[in-house]
């Protein structure tokens, strides 16, 4: 019975990608290897060497985004294109690539929204200990300073570290440094938080007109039942998964529930003198967050502790005495098994806004599926349209609730390689003609969702 508030006139409709998943050209243009280039990939899945070959197709790709009417494009810069070994010489060819990309976007009046680091730590830094090594903080701050100097005249919106919380929960897989214990993982986390704070400060110092914020994956966590123990389990997991990262970005301090959880697990990070001040010295101007689904937890009784506890902890899925993740039970799933919860997006946006009262932007949301290319070159991805429509409705409801939401960037603008499931799991509005092991012609084709989203943007969200 609510009268819906319209989307603001300057609402930033767009889409999202990340460098290692879209660019390809993994060893061209002076680029150094990142942890994504050196990691072991399962034999049935594509590596990231060619990806969507955006490095060579960026003009055509930007033209496609412009045709859809994109107001913004959220992409990431590959650290190893700018500084191939992480902390040494600057690679002018890498700078040139992003200069070209940014200029191409601006030519089409598309606002660049830049993530500085999306899962692709320079391999050379990983060899030196990755985020376990405090020297990585210095390397990151220097790298970001270069970005601010070279692109800050044109880029007004910056994001720091993509899904730091998911990297920590999946412990070590993509952050480098080979963290094995929870304590070590949260030590790495602490270093990343220090790095983020320093970079946010640096951005404010160098670019007073720019805005910068974090890039976590925030999903509301439901209790499995109304048993107070389940509710407490959800409270703790919400703190550990979500609020730890946002309290830090917004207030510069550790969330108390998350800290108590770390203490109970002997996993509090060691602090050096000055760390607390550093954490407070650079704070976010806005909150960008990625949302795919909600989560559900129940209380995990201590007496049920098993041998797999260490493994559970590493996946962030269960910690005896606190919580373990379970299926929701009533939600539909994608064909890749991800729960679909559009209402959860409204709930999440309200949770965030009522805690922090900062402007929000959704920087990822979408459906991964196996698209079929028909003989006449069509892709009928109705399932993707349905997913996005349902979520956009909830975005509008959140706006109606009074949440200051200034943009929506589904994952992904065009097809790219999934983090773990290769090219068979697609997210884009634009189909890229290749499969996991056959590069075909890499041509770009408009999916049904392309035309649908174009109309959504043209009508500022009225035609869903
Ligand atoms: C987010 C990441 O976690 O989810 C993206 O920021 C990722 O990099 C996206 O691609 C979808 O996940 P997946 O595993 O299906 O690629």
From TrEMBL:
Transmembrane segments: none annotated. It comes from the Bacteria. InterPro entries: GH, GH_1_N_CS, Glyco_hydro_1, Glyco_hydro_1_AS. SUPFAM superfamilies: (Trans)glycosidases. The active site is at 364 (nucleophile). One of its GO terms (molecular function) is beta-glucosidase activity. GO terms for cellular component: cytosol. Pfam families: Glyco_hydro_1. Keywords: Glycosidase, Hydrolase. Gene3D superfamilies: Glycosidases (3.20.20.80). GO terms for biological process: carbohydrate catabolic process. Belongs to the glycosyl hydrolase 1 family. This is 6-phospho-beta-glucosidase. It comes from Desemzia incerta.
């Amino acid at each position: 019975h609510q009268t819906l508030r319209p989307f603001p006139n300057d609402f930033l409709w767009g889409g999202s990608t990340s460098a290692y998943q879209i660019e390809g050209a993994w060893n061209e243009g002076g680029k150094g290897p990142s942890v994504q280039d050196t990691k072991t990939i399962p034999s049935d899945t594509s590596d990231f060497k060619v990806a969507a070959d955006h490095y060579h197709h960026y003009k055509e790709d930007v033209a496609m985004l412009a045709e859809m009417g994109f107001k913004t494009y959220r992409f990431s810069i590959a650290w190893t294109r700018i500084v191939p070994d992480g902390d040494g010489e600057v690679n002018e060819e890498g700078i040139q690539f992003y200069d070209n990309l940014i200029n191409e976007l601006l030519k089409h009046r598309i606002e660049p929204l830049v993530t500085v680091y999306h899962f692709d730590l320079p391999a050379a830094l990983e060899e030196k200990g990755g985020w376990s090594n405090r020297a990585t903080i210095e390397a990151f701050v220097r790298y970001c300073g270069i970005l601010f100097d070279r692109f800050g005249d044109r880029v007004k919106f910056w994001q720091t570290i993509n899904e730091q919380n998911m990297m920590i929960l999946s412990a070590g897989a993509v952050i480098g440094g080979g963290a094995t214990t929870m304590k070590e993982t949260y030590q790495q986390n602490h270093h990343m938080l220090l790095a983020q704070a320093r970079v946010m400060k640096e951005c404010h110092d160098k670019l007073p007109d720019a805005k910068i914020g974090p890039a976590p994956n925030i999903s509301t966590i439901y209790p499995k039942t109304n048993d107070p123990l389940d509710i407490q389990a959800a409270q703790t997991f919400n703190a550990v998964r979500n609020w730890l990262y946002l309290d830090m970005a917004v207030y510069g301090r550790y969330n108390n529930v998350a800290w108590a959880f770390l203490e109970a697990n002997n996993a509090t990070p060691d602090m050096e003198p000055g760390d607390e001040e550093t954490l407070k010295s650079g704070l976010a101007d806005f909150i960008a967050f990625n949302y795919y689904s909600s989560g559900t937890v129940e209380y995990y009784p201590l007496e049920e502790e098993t041998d797999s506890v260490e493994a559970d902890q590493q996946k962030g899925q269960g910690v005896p005495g606190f919580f373990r993740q379970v299926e929701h039970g009533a939600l539909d799933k994608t064909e890749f098994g991800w729960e679909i919860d559009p209402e959860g997006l409204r709930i999440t946006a309200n949770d965030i806004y009522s805690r922090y009262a900062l402007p929000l932007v959704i920087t990822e949301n979408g459906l991964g599926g196996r698209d079929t290319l028909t003989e006449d070159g069509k892709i009928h991805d109705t399932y993707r349209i349905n997913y996005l429509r349902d979520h956009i409705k909830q975005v509008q409801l959140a706006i109606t609730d009074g949440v200051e939401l200034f943009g929506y960037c589904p994952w992904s603008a065009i097809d790219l390689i999934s983090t773990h499931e290769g090219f068979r799991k697609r997210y884009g509005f634009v189909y890229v003609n290749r499969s996991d092991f056959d590069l075909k012609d890499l041509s770009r084709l408009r999916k049904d969702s392309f035309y649908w989203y174009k109309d959504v943007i043209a009508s500022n969200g009225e035609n869903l």
